[in-house]
Amino acid sequence: MGAAVHAEEVLEAFDEISYLKGGAIVRMLQNFIGEENFKKGLKWNRNKQGIKQIMTTWTSQSGYPVVKFERNYENRTAEITQKPFSLELDDEEESIKVLDERLWSVPVMYTDGSELDWSTKTDFWLTSKSDVVKNLPNESTWIIANVQQVGYYRANYDADNWNLILEQLLENHTKIHVINRAQILNDILNLARSDEVDYALALNMTKYLFFETEYLPWQAAFTAFKYLDIMLAKTPGHDEFKASAIIKVES
């Protein structure tokens, strides 16, 4: 069943959206309906979901999700899950988080190291808590989701896939789109703050910055370093952290 999208419907979808969240969601909307449809309100056809149904999941509830790819390297599949993303929860908030049933209609797009494709066409929609994607590359090849960070969500992976990404960044970081290099740092350092990944893994990801010359990844790193500098102040590890950060900047 097709759905015609007009300018009024686009505006209606954002009646209750907050200003800060709105910018990111507007970009996501523009990507999946197309720039011309977005600007002119021309007809846009979807086989399964209308724009209002999709956008209601973003405009009628707070927050945004983290989407995780948990790969099975033997059968070349991955379980894709979504859950609300939160930073630094206390025990009471953690118990609430377990019961949190918020779901979003998430446009999932991904690429891999064997067939680089940095176009932002949606591969599939994640509308439930979990789904399975098949025909992934072999165990020596990374995948990266949220291509060019057009989706309003964080991307997480199993530790093996994170390490494959790190290997690529250290070997030749330019094979990964600069926006995704910034996204990788932003995501993993914030996922570490929320105890979704180990901080050791997150900080290892910054090692490739010795070779980085673009602004966006450095901006993502500086934001995280500022938080760590505050949190580590007056601790035994603060001097070591500052020295490491300075070396990266001066290199």
UniProtKB/TrEMBL annotation:
Subcellular location(s) per record: Cell membrane
Signal peptide: none
Keyword Cytoplasm: no
Keywords attached to this entry: Aminopeptidase, Cell membrane, Glycoprotein, GPI-anchor, Hydrolase, Lipoprotein, Membrane, Metal-binding, Metalloprotease, Protease, Signal
Pfam families, per the entry: ERAP1_C (PF11838), Peptidase_M1 (PF01433)
Domain Peptidase M1 membrane alanine aminopeptidase: 6-44
Main location: membrane
GO biological process, one term: proteolysis
GO molecular function: metalloaminopeptidase activity; peptide binding; zinc ion binding
Cofactor: Zn(2+)
Membrane topology designation: Lipid-anchor; GPI-anchor
All residue ranges annotated as the ERAP1-like C-terminal domain in the record: 142-243
GO CC terms: cytoplasm; extracellular space; plasma membrane; side of membrane
InterPro entries: ERAP1-like_C_dom, Peptidase_M1_aminopeptidases, Peptidase_M1_dom, Peptidase_M4/M1_CTD_sf
Family: Belongs to the peptidase M1 family.
PANTHER family the UniProt entry points to: PROTEASE M1 ZINC METALLOPROTEASE (PTHR11533), THYROTROPIN-RELEASING HORMONE-DEGRADING ECTOENZYME (PTHR11533:SF294)
Official protein name in the record: Aminopeptidase Ey
Organism this protein belongs to: Trichonephila inaurata madagascariensis
